[in-house]
Structure formats: structure tokens, C-alpha cells
Amino acid sequence: MTTRSYFLAGFLAAAGALAFAxxxxxxxxxxxxxxxxxxxxxxxxxxxFCLIGFAHGPGVGGRRIYSALAALSAVLGAAIAARHVWLxxxxxxxxxxxxxxxxxxxxxMPLAEVLSTxxxxxxxxxxxxxxxxGISLPAWTGIYFLMxxxxxxxxxxxxxxxxxx
Length: 165
Fold this sequence. Notes:
This protein is mostly helical. The chain has a single domain (3-157), classed as DsbB-like (Bromodomain-like). The protein has seven helices and two strands, in the order H-H-H-H-H-H-E-E-H. The protein has a two-stranded antiparallel sheet. A hairpin with a 2-residue loop joins strand 1 (131-132) and strand 2. The protein is elongated. The chain starts with a helix and ends in an 8-residue tail after the last helix. The mean pLDDT is 85.
């Protein structure tokens, strides 16, 4: 496999996941909670680093750097998804109260405080809005992030040729 085709596959996987998320939002009416939006940002990070790797077509050192950045984005996304799943499984009396929307938080708080507030979660994040085969969408997203992370690890430790895709 060439370096470019490897990064193209990673980009298409991330872009496909984001396209599905937007399909669920705009065609199916599943509005994302703040943690869902953060997961989308992490998925966009995976896609961006893979797209840059595809465009650059780097040698071994560059491939490892882009793969490590994609892996970091995927691991962060998996951690956010795990937090989301944890909130969904809290007893009702332990779920944090609903807070203001993400747009409002960004307008009135410093970025570090926005991150802290969103990662604490609230009742909108604890609600199961969609599931497939009895598994919530954030759990599926976490699984997908882990698959992307393992794929990125292949980019760090694997052997590739430096040809065209």
C-alpha cells in the first residue's frame, strides 16, 4: 500500500463518519448535544491530518507524524465518546442539570471554561437520542474512533511505499 492511499482511506473514513452525522442531524432531525459536537471536531481532526498526509505524500518521518496526529485526534474522540456513554448510563438523579447551549457558552466564557463545562456534560448529553442494534450512537462513535486509532498506529509502525494513490 502506498502512503497516499493509506491517508486517502483515513480521510474517506473520517469524512464518511461526518457525512453520516450530518445526515442524522439534517435528514433525521437528531440534534447534536455539545459532546456530539466535540466528537465531530475530533473526527474532523482525524480527517484533516489524513487529508494533509494524502496531499503531501510524505516519506517515513512525515507519515509517522501525520499518523500520530490522526491517532491523537482519534484517541481524544474516543475519550469524549466514552465520557458521553458514561453520562448516558448514570442514574437519573445523578445526571447533571441542563446547561446553556454551546453557542452561548462560546460567547460568554473563555475557551478553557467552555471545554470544562462541556466535558462535564449535562442532561442533553445523557439522553439516548439514537441507537443501532441496541448500542447508542456515541458508543458506535467510540468504537469507530478506536478503529481509526488502530489504523493510525499502522501508519506509525507499518511499511508503505512512497508512490501515487
